[in-house]
Automatic annotation (TrEMBL):
Membrane topology: Multi-pass membrane protein
Localization terms from the record: Cell membrane
SUPFAM superfamilies: MFS general substrate transporter
GO molecular function: transmembrane transporter activity
Record protein name field: MFS transporter
Alphabetic keyword roster: Cell membrane, Membrane, Transmembrane, Transmembrane helix, Transport
PROSITE patterns per UniProt: MFS
Keyword match Membrane: yes
Lineage: Bacteria, Bacillati, Actinomycetota, Actinomycetes, Micrococcales
Keyword Repressor on entry: no
Length: 403
């Protein structure tokens, strides 16, 4: 009898989500631990804001490049075994980052750390679709995305106060030690795979055969565009808002900048909510509304009063994670074959946007200020909306989605 997947409420279902939550902490706490510390890194190493942001971009570039190789490795070795190897390697590199003797070595270690981390987001959604009942897959994907927001939030909140007391190197070391504990928990919690069927070793032609269908689908291309444009905009705001608030008239310390990441809790909530709303109103409608909420929140950050900026950041964050939850789950539903590769292409686009837009937006910020950067990001959000309206099918968003 074919494996139907763990159903919501079962022990296996809870263990799958708990294991992926731990993987999310181990991954995203490390990946973005330096984001709230960029002003400290800039001053300590004598680099500009855009150069400091490369410590985030190099990690996401490494991740973007590695997601496809990890996905093919997992087709042969298995999802859990491959994710376990990835999270162990990432933790090793993460523990080396604080010891980097100069800026160039720091960037190299961050790129290697990101490449290792690529094995988690590349495979998490594919693992969910294989091990969780199809009727619960959308809710499980939302729960996983919510878990990644908590992982990213934890890393930033821990790094900021520790860095204020002992410097950015000790701040990142504290995060890496906690990520190591989360990696062990992932390995202990993940249930034995039951839905995975190993693939034989493949040649280059077979590899292309799995990739080309994903690249021929206009719907999947539209979702990859959402990943690139919306994630690029999201990371840019969080990369450079700290620089804005550290400067006069605000003069925030690193520990106060770290508190800005509490806005991630809005993403934790929205990523869980959208699955239910999409079941009623359709995935495309919820995706478009989420992008609109992002744009509204971004506009509010143009104001001078701190309370207005913070409300705008909360809206911006909730909108982004709502859109990301819908788009990432929809990617798996639309993939007729090569589900791991479809998810990996989504993640490649997602982290390419983080790397390219997250760095280049800093050049705009340095030269022209926050208002100009926000305007440029608003254009990217508008392009994502156009791609969604013109290329994505209308969908009731029910279990499995429209293929």
């Amino acid at each position: 009898m074919p494996w139907d997947g763990h159903r919501r409420g079962s022990t296996g279902y809870r263990r799958v989500l708990a294991a992926l939550a731990c993987a999310g902490v181990a991954t995203f706490a490390q990946l973005y631990s330096l984001q709230g510390l960029l002003p400290l890194v800039s001053r300590d190493l004598g680099v500009t804001a855009a150069q400091a942001s490369l410590t985030v971009s190099m990690a996401t570039i490494g991740l973007a490049v590695a997601v496809l190789p990890w996905s093919f490795a997992a087709d042969h070795w298995g999802r859990i075994r491959t994710m376990g190897l990835a999270v162990i390697l990432a933790t090793v590199f993460g523990l080396l980052v604080p010891a980097a003797p100069n800026f160039e070595i720091l960037l190299l270690l961050r790129a290697l750390e990101g490449a290792a981390l690529g094995g988690i987001p590349a495979l998490a959604i594919a693992y969910l679709t294989e091990e969780v009942s199809r009727s619960n897959a959308a809710a499980a994907a939302g729960a996983y995305v919510a878990g990644t927001t908590l992982g990213g939030l934890f890393g930033r909140l821990l790094a900021g106060p520790v860095a204020d007391l002992a410097g950015w190197r000790i701040g990142t070391l504290a995060v890496s030690l906690c990520a190591a504990a989360a990696a062990v928990a992932f390995l202990l919690l993940a249930p034995k795979p039951r839905g995975f069927v190993p693939s034989p070793r493949e040649g280059f032609g077979s590899v292309l055969g799995k990739l080309l269908p994903q690249l021929r689908s206009t719907s999947l291309l539209a979702l990859y565009a959402q990943a690139f444009l919306l994630m690029g905009s999201f990371v840019s705001v969080y990369n450079y808002l700290g620089f804005r608030l550290e400067a006069p008239p605000y003069l925030f310390p690193a520990s106060a900048v770290a508190l800005l990441f509490l806005a991630y809790l809005a993403g934790t909530v929205s990523s869980r909510m959208v699955a239910g709303v999409a079941a009623r109103w359709g995935r495309r409608a919820v995706l478009l509304v989420s992008a609109g909420v992002m744009a509204a929140g971004l506009a509010m950050t143009l104001a001078a009063p701190i309370p207005v900026i913070l409300v705008g950041l909360v809206l911006f964050t909730a909108g982004f994670f709502g859109a990301h939850s819908i788009a990432s789950g929809w990617t798996g539903a639309l993939a007729l074959m090569g589900g791991a590769q479809a998810s990996s292409l989504y993640n490649l686009s997602y982290y390419a946007g983080s790397s390219v837009v997250g760095w280049s937006a800093g050049l705009v910020f340095q030269q022209f200020g926050w208002t100009a950067m926000a305007g440029a990001l608003a254009v990217l959000i508008a392009l994502a909306v156009v791609a969604a309206v013109t290329l994505l099918p209308r969908s009731a968003g029910r279990a499995g989605g429209t293929r």
